[in-house]
Amino acid sequence: MSVAQKQINQMLTMQDAMNSRVSETWRSNGYEWYRAIWVECAEMLDHHGWKWWKHQEIDIAQVQLELVDIFHFGLSLRLMSGASVEKISTKLAKELHQGTGEDDFKIALENLASAAVTEKSFDAKALADCMSLMNMDLDELFRQYVGKNTLNFFRQDHGYKEGSYIKIWHGEEDNEVLANLVNTLDTSASDFQQQLYAALEDKYPT
Hints:
Largest sheet: 2 strands, antiparallel
Helix content: 55-70%
Strand content: under 5%
Structural class: mainly alpha
Order of helices and strands: HHHHHHHEEHH
């Protein structure tokens, strides 16, 4: 099994665990994962910039974060197919490696949104195009995905669903705290997720 397949395997397993943490019956709940994808695409376009009548700077870090969020929903959609994790990871690894070669970010993003709107599907090749144009490879996607997945678990464990979770930590949003912590830890460590959770616990305002 390739490194890419192993990473995607791990992310699929983590996504299933996260979805099950929110609802044990997530596969039969009828969640519109495809809708979450195209809404995120619209948000991402604002971070990238599309208004020709005003000056806009591309916020690459924020665009990358949105790509990671979309990948969460894309993994969920693929898991809904009923295929095995191994089968899904093999197909995803191939699609993410190939892309389509689209060199205009806005068009690549529209291709991603279009598949979600018209086919209710996740276009991994379009995501690969977007990643490539934002200097993001699979290793970086994996690093940021594990970080965000860990934060999502942390949120659930600290009252996110009930509305008691604190989003601003000592003047910073939890996403910003996460980004700083990830940069201080060894992402290749076998217990990286556990280390990150413990670091979040240490920083969380009580």
